[in-house]
Amino acid sequence: METNFIEKQLSQSVQQESELRWEYMNGIIEYDDYLNQSFITQRSISEIRKYKHKQENANAKKLEILKEKIQGCNKCEISHTCLNAVVGEGNPDAKVVIVGEAPGKVEDKQGNPFKGKSGAKLNEALHRIEMKRSDVFITNVVKCRPSDNRDPKPEEIKNCGFYLMKQLAIIKPQIIITLGRFSTEYILQIKKPISSVRGQLHHIIINGENTYVLPIYHPAVTIYDRSKEDVFFDDFEFVKELII
Ligand code: SF4
Fold first, then answer.
1. pLDDT of residue 3
2. Which ligand 1 atom minimizes the distance to the CA of 75?
3. 95 by DSSP, 3-state: which?
4. Backbone angles phi, psi at 36, to 5 degrees
5. Which ligand 1 atom is nearest residue 82's CA?
6. How confident is the model at residue 9, as a pLDDT?
7. What's the pTM?
8. Together in a domain, 212 and 104
9. Is 160 touching ligand 1 by the criterion CB < 6 Å?
10. Is 90 among the domain residues?
11. Same domain, 18 and 112
12. What pLDDT, on the 0 to 100 scale, is given for residue 189?
C-alpha cells in the first residue's frame, strides 16, 4: 500500500516535471521559474541547461552567418563609402529588439550601433527601465552609413530591410522598438508621422511569429528638441510593462 503511494507520488512529479519542461521549451515559463520548482531533479536541470545553451548558441551562430553576409554586401553605393557595415549587437535571444535608422559618423567608425550622444540617451532610457544594452539587440534598418548624414534612400531601406527581417526572424523578439520614422515606416509599412504613432502598440507577424511593435522618437530628436525628452522616456516605461 505504502509502495503504491510512493510510486504514485513519483509518477506525479515526473508528469509535473515533463509538463513544466514543455512549457519552458515553448516559451510559456522562464528558465528561472523552471529551476525554482522543488520537484525538479539534478539530472533534469543539467539536461535543460544543455538545451538552453544549445538554443542560445543556435541564434548566435545564425546571426554570425548573416553578419558575414551583410559585411560582404554591396547592393547599394554607400557600401563603397562607409567604413563599416554596422550589423547590430546584443543578446541573440533578446525579448526586445531596438531598430534605429542608419549608422552615423561615430557608429560607422566604431562598427557598433547607437554610440555618441544618441547612444548615451538610449542607454539612459534602458537604465531607467532596469535594462542593459546586453539584454536587448540593437540594430538599424540600413547597415551602411549614408554619406554626409543624409536620410537613407528608399532603395537602400528596401535592400537592407531584407537583412533586418532576417535578423528579426532569427531572434523572434516579443517587442520591436522602432526608433524614429524610417524603421517605423518600414516595419509597419505605413506612411505616418512618428508623432502620430509613437507610444502605440502595433501587432505584426514575422515568419508566422506574433510580435509587437512600439514606435518611439529617435533619441537624436530629444537632443535637439528637449520638449520631447519626457515623452521619449515615458514610452520606454511602457516597454517594461509589456515584457512577459
Ligand atoms: S546598406 Fe545594406 S543592403 Fe545596402 S550595401 Fe549596405 S548592407 Fe548591403
1. 60
2. 5
3. coil
4. -75, -5
5. 6
6. 64
7. 0.82
8. yes
9. yes
10. yes
11. no
12. 95
Q: Give the pLDDT mean for 74-82.
A: 96
What's the pLDDT tens digit per position in 111-139? 999 999 999 999 999 999 999 999 999 99
The pLDDT of residue 10: 63
Residue nearest atom 4 in ligand 1 by C-alpha distance:
76
Name the grid cell of 235: 514610452
Residues 31 and 102 placed together within one structural domain of the fold:
no
pLDDT of residue 244: 65
Residue 84 has pLDDT above 80, yes or no: yes
What's the CATH code of the domain at 85? Answer: 3.40.470.10
Q: Is the dihedral of CA 170, 179, 163, 188 positive or negative?
A: positive
**How long, in residues, is the chain?**
244
Distance 194 CA to ligand 1 centre (A): 24
With cell 561615430, the residue in question is 106
In a domain, 49, yes or no: no
Whether 67 and 168 map to the same domain: the answer is yes
- H/E segment holding residue 186: helix 181-188
Amino acid of residue 34: Y
Q: Is residue 176 part of a domain?
A: yes
For the CA of 74, the nearest atom of ligand 1:
5
d(CA 44, CA 94): 25
Backbone angles phi, psi at 186, to 5 degrees: -70, -50
Could you give the count of Cα atoms lying within 13 Å of 78 in the half-sphere of its Cβ? 25
